[in-house]
Specification:
- With 293 residues, this protein is of the alpha+beta class.
- The protein is 51% helix and 11% strand.
- It has a five-stranded mixed beta sheet with strand order 1-2-5-4-3, covered by helices on one side.
- Strand 4 and strand 5 form a beta hairpin.
- Helix 2 packs across helix 4 and helix 4 packs parallel to helix 6.
- 34% of the residues are buried.
């Protein structure tokens, strides 16, 4: 596994200055050593279009812009068109995230008001878990999980709010729906006006054996804005869920590593040992190595 500290220190020869800058700027929090490294790497970058492409591919525009700001570099909009494009991506990402926060609250109130218990996965809750704030994490979907026998009612409510079925299609046959419910984990919807997407889960993963345990059925409140909370997974299983999600997708985006790195950076060594023991008990300690973060 790639050791990010070695990469930051220049010991990993596979990294270009452009990729190394994106990695350095998206690590959270920004301590003095990392700030100095961001400045050093930014001075070495010669291909800003490549930086912009990496940032967009890995969906880390908000984190990247925050990293440059913390390093005291010139305004992200100054300089080349590529740097201006990154600034625009960061602003668009922050606006979309705030829209997602308030839509999440609305959907939770809508479902709970209809007597459907619901928990929120990832999205706004991952932003608060990892960074304690909004505006730096890219969030494309609103992930909600309900009991399997409540999926049809919840889907009808989403339909009434204007969401369009995209997976499966609204005209899917009864046989297709039965197969979806048996083999998949969610239904997917998109709102034609806002562009927000909702994944309505009845289990966490398509593989029902990927992550199991009684605590995955537990819930605790998380405040998204003052005076408004939603139900989420408790902290330890929520972190395991993020590990499992990243593993399922091959850690193909820096965004997911940035989430995990920020979360673990806030833990004490004793907390990390306890968390590793918990993962080991589940047979999932191979998902992570503490020294890589």
């Amino acid at each position: 596994m790639l050791n990010l500290d070695a990469l930051l220190d220049g010991d990993a020869q596979i990294a270009t200055p452009e990729f190394a800058l994106v990695v350095a700027a998206t690590r959270w929090p920004h301590d003095p050593r990392r700030v100095a490294r961001i400045r050093e790497l930014a001075a070495r970058v010669t291909d800003w279009p490549r930086v912009a492409a990496i940032v967009e591919r890995h969906r880390v525009a908000g984190l990247f812009a925050a990293g440059l700001n913390h390093a005291g570099l010139p305004d992200i909009d100054a300089g080349t068109d590529a740097r201006a494009a990154i600034g625009a991506l960061a602003r668009d990402s922050a606006v979309q995230e705030l829209q997602s926060v308030f839509e999440t609250l609305h959907l939770v109130r809508m479902l709970e008001g209809a007597g459907i218990p619901v928990r929120v996965l990832k999205g706004a809750t991952a932003a608060m878990l990892a960074f304690g704030r909004y505006g730096v994490r890219y969030s494309m979907d609103i992930d909600l999980i309900v009991a399997k026998d409540q999926v049809a009612r919840a889907a009808s409510l989403l339909d009434a709010r204007g969401y369009v079925w995209i997976a499966p299609a609204a005209d899917a046959s009864a046989a297709t729906m039965r197969a979806r419910m048996a083999r998949y984990k969610d239904l997917a919807f998109e709102h034609p006006d806002s562009g927000l997407m909702v994944e309505l889960h009845w289990r966490l993963f398509q593989n029902p054996y990927l992550l199991r345990g009684d605590d995955l059925d537990a819930r605790e409140p998380m405040q998204l804005v003052p005076g408004a909370s939603v139900a989420v997974l408790p902290r330890a299983p929520a972190i395991l869920y993020l590990f499992a999600h990243g593993t399922e997708h091959g850690w193909a985006r820096l965004k997911w590593l940035a989430d995990i790195g920020a979360i673990l950076a806030a833990e004490t060594p004793a907390d990390l040992d306890q968390f590793y023991a918990r993962a080991q008990k589940r047979g999932r300690h191979d998902w992570w190595r503490r020294d890589s973060f």
